[in-house]
Amino acid sequence: MHGFIAGNRGRSHKDIAICCLGYLSLLESQKRAAMFYRVDLHGGPHVCPVSDFGHDLISYATMQWPTHCKVAISEELESSDLLVAVERFLGQTEIRAIWAEIYHILSHPITRPKAPLSTAFVTLSSLGLDTFVAPRIHESNYSQDLHNEYDAALAEAARNGHEDTLETLLNSFNPTKPTLELSIRSADYRVLFTLLNCTSRFSENYDYSTDLLCRAVWLRTDDAVKFLIEKDVAVDFEPSPKMLPFHLAARMDHERIVKLLISANADLNWRSPNEPCVAGNLETVKLLLEAKVDFECRDCDGWSVLQTAASCGHHEILQTLLSAGADEGYPGDETQPLIEALRLHFSKCCRVLVGAGARTAASEGFRSPLWFSVEQLNKEICELLLKHKADPNWKARSNFAPILTRAVQSGGDVELVRLLLDSIAPQPQFNLLQD
């Protein structure tokens, strides 16, 4: 393909597209490829080959001819020979069917349709080749065959987010309510709002579900979320994924959508606001604080937002929560935020918590924050804890070594041992050790 690049960009893409289509039109080449990719042309299971992230000639031609075709057309060159090549290829039923099977197998298993593309009209709609879609509709005089293929064509254009093709299909036919519902359920973020607007064609009340609102949130389509809120969709109804639209938006840091759902009076305290603390979404946390969310509530595992933010290393969120009055006064067990941050080497979180007055002591029998900082050989945090009156003589349960002993066991960092010795009240055995 490199030989095509030297000339005009648009002409190069056109020539590559024509070459790809010519190669794909060789029936024997297609059949060999079908056998190689283990395609059962009689309806059997499709086994996706293991990809080496490269292309052989047949796979490149199969997957890339539509891209070259669209680029060539966008350059506004004289492309009658390309149009003829595409129409000739799609008109060969057997060859197109084998290509559709291979294209389906090589496509991403999450985003591809359930079945291979069936007809030329559906194929053009799925690939977003609008240059061919509109003429085909007019030339067929809106035939019954085209009407029969319309549902699948609209759903494919919606799934792949081809705005121009979708507009052409919507303006050429009157989609039924079931057709629109099918397309909306699979719509890409680029066309979801367009399809929702089409539902206003129906006089009866359209059933906008919370599942659809969750999809709009997931796709980050602010205009679609606003549209559904204005249609009084239940924002606090728990759909099948067991997550409300608000908590999905908070977890994914959709700041504008969070604002929309707050203004729609979504229940902000339905679950613990831990989602944005896990993901590190500082702006969303600030929005929730402004909306007076209860940041002292716990999640299903009993964790607070401070514990969550500390265990994820989000020191800016910790600072924001503490400045807003979050309670850092935990019982001195080993799940307190300071110890969670120490376990995972989040020094910035440790400094924020200690500076806010987090306990440096532990309840009887538990290991203290200083014990964990020694275990991690974190001399900087050890100094910080000692400055805040951490007790170097603290002893946990009998099955845990004293702090000084643990410092030696953890690698014998001389500077760390000296730091602890200097902080411990002089005792004969320590003087002997120093000698």
From TrEMBL:
Q: Which UniProt keywords apply?
A: ANK repeat, Repeat
Positions of the ANK repeats?
241-273, 301-327
Give the PROSITE patterns listed for this entry: ANK_REP_REGION, ANK_REPEAT
Q: Kinase: is it a keyword of this entry?
A: no
Q: Would the keyword Isomerase turn up in this protein's UniProt record?
A: no
Signal peptide: which range, if any?
Answer: none
Q: This protein is called what? A: Uncharacterized protein
Q: Which organism is it from?
A: Botryotinia convoluta
